[in-house]
Amino acid sequence: MKQSKKITLSTTHIIMLSFICAVIVGSILLSLPLSSATGEAVPYIDALFTAVTSTCVTGLVTVTTADTWSVFGQTVILLLIQAGGLGIITVMSGIMLIINKRFGLNDSVLIQDAFNLNTLSGLSAFVRRVFAGTAVIEGIGALLYMTVFVPEYGVRGIWISVFNSVSAFCNAGIDIIGSESLCSYVTNPVINLVTCALIIMGGIGYIVWWDVIRVLKKHRGRKLFRFLTLQSKLAIVSTAVLIFSGAVLIFIFEYSNNSTVGSFNIFEKIQFSLFQSVTTRTAGFATVPQENLTDSSAMVCLLLMFIGGSPVGTAGGIKTVTFAVLLIAAFSAIRNKNSTEIFSRAISVRTVRKALSVTVMSFGIMAVSTVLLSAVTDADALDVVYETVSATATVGLTRNLTSALDTVGKIIIMITMYLGRVGPISLAVAFNLRKENLNTVRCPEEEISVG
Q1: Under a CB-based contact definition with an 8 Å cutoff, are residues 238 and 311 in contact?
Q2: Does the pLDDT of residue 27 top 90, yes or no?
Q3: Distance from the Cα of residue 329 to its chain's centroid
Q4: Exposure of 375 by Cβ count < 10 A (0-12 exposed, 13-18 middle, 19+ buried)?
Q5: Is the dihedral of CA 130, 133, 136, 138 positive or negative?
Q6: What are phi and psi of 394, to 5 degrees?
Q7: CA distances (Å), 356 to each of 224, 319, 325, 367, 430, in order?
Q8: What is the CA radius of gyration of the chain?
Q9: CA-CA distance, 237 to 307, in Å (whole number)?
Q10: Rounded to whole angstroms, how far apart are CA atoms 10 and 402?
Q11: Burial, 201: exposed, middle or buried (Cβ in 10 Å; 0-12, 13-18, 19+)?
Q12: Which of the residue ranges 43-57, 147-161, 240-254, 417-431 would you say has the lowest mean pLDDT?
């Protein structure tokens, strides 16, 4: 009698399947009448779409979250957002810690790959810090939101504050206020600043958190920046540059646009421009209808959405560090340098190849999705591209197209959101697992013309 072969799943397979399982469970729960605000079951395609967009922390929705889902349904969505933002593997690891189960070698390797870390040491402490830090920041965000939402909505304002805080930190962009996202708060400094702070804290990456804290504790005084790791330096600098440059360009392009902020005063225009620049970094909240933006601003937003946040955080996109590495490599090639260097450090060829692969994969997902969506809808080309880039980078901003999609269009966007969320992660894991064999026979090199 032949013994059946044991099926072993790679880390990549486990990560991809964990998202699928969360989506299936979430969609089943959301399809129950209990999850509907009216007591009548929501069509399964919309329940499935909501589960995908929540788990992938995207924020594109086919139905209004506040009006469609009951408190139970909204709770399911919130749990999916939290699990998707932290990562399904992280949540599973947290449960293991709660029940005092120690990480085995396979568990440790899985967590290491899920976070794209370089070491297996201190993983339990790392996971605990992730959960503790997330709870503290989301809690502070909720309390600050309450100063606005509780006076306006009463007791329900507490639930709105908690939901918005988790959604903003996880860069999901889903809210339970109404159909217009945060448009009614476009000039409210508390909502704008708190939301921006949560988005940036969630998107900057956990590794940067601990590195900054380490430097502040160990090196009291000036020139703290130089003691940070290269990862943190690239994440902080690229994030600051992208937010500032994006805000300046949007301010210029929208200054006289009466459909958005043309009638606002200078402070309100600056506030809007900063918020728009931050939210395009995969958060998805909107303080003005995106279809009202000028085409120039929309193009800026497309670039910011595609880049996204930083690695090992809650944001999507190709990531700021990836973009920075590609730029540094390009300038190094232009200067005919043999190595890719920045801040007196050299970046390995393997890292450059990894950055290039993630970018190409994300661009490929976006391109295929754009072609397919264009074939099944007669929407404006810019609206279609905005939708597909938003889905690929798990942003959640739309030019009023998501709710108008037919079943085929919804399926295309769901697949795009899923691939946009797990594709780059899986590729990064694959790079970690497949070490180069230095003993292999190398092919002879031959010069070719490029450019």
Answers
A1: no
A2: yes
A3: 24
A4: exposed
A5: negative
A6: 50, 55
A7: 31, 12, 9, 16, 14
A8: 22
A9: 14
A10: 34
A11: buried
A12: 417-431
Beta bridge partners of 45: none
Distance CA 424, CA 418 (A): 11
Q: Are strands 340-342 and 345-347 parallel, antiparallel or unpaired?
A: antiparallel
Joined together, the tokens standing for residue 147 give 């100063």
According to the 3-state scheme, what is the secondary structure of 295-327?
HHHHHHHHHHHHHCCCCCCCCCCCCHHHHHHHH
Tokens in use for 188? 């409210």
What are the pLDDT digits (tens) for 180-200?
Answer: 889 999 999 999 999 999 999
Cross-strand pairs, 347: 340
pLDDT at site 104? 53
Task: Outline where 31-155 has alpha helix (H).
Answer: 44-55, 65-68, 71-86, 88-98, 105-115, 123-153
Residue 129 burial (10 A CB sphere; 0-12, 13-18, 19+):
middle
Q: What is the DSSP string of 201-241?
A: HHHH-HHHHHHHHHHHHH--SS-GGGGS-HHHHHHHHHHHH
| Helical (H) or strand (E) element with 28 | helix 11-30
Structure tokens at 84: 């998707």
Provide the angle, in degrees to the nearest 10, between the axes of the packed helices 123-153 and 105-115.
Answer: 50
34-66 per-residue burial string, b: 16 or more CB within 10 A, e: under 16: ebbbeeeebeebbbbbbbbbbbbbbbbbbbbbb
Query: Chain-centre distance of CA 219, in angstroms?
Result: 32
* Cα atoms in the Cβ-side hemisphere of radius 13 Å centred on 423: 24
Amino acid in position 11: T
pLDDT of residue 41: 93
Q: What is the pLDDT of residues 295-349, one digit of tens each?
A: 999 999 999 999 988 887 778 888 899 999 999 999 888 888 888 888 888 888 8
Encode pLDDT of 220-272 as tens digits.
Answer: 666 778 888 888 899 999 999 999 999 999 999 999 999 999 999 999 999 99
At residue 113's C-alpha, the angle toward residues 124 and 7, to 5°, is: 105
Q: How many helices (H) and strands (E) does the chain have?
A: 17, 2
Res 1 pLDDT > 50: no
DSSP 3-state of 69: strand
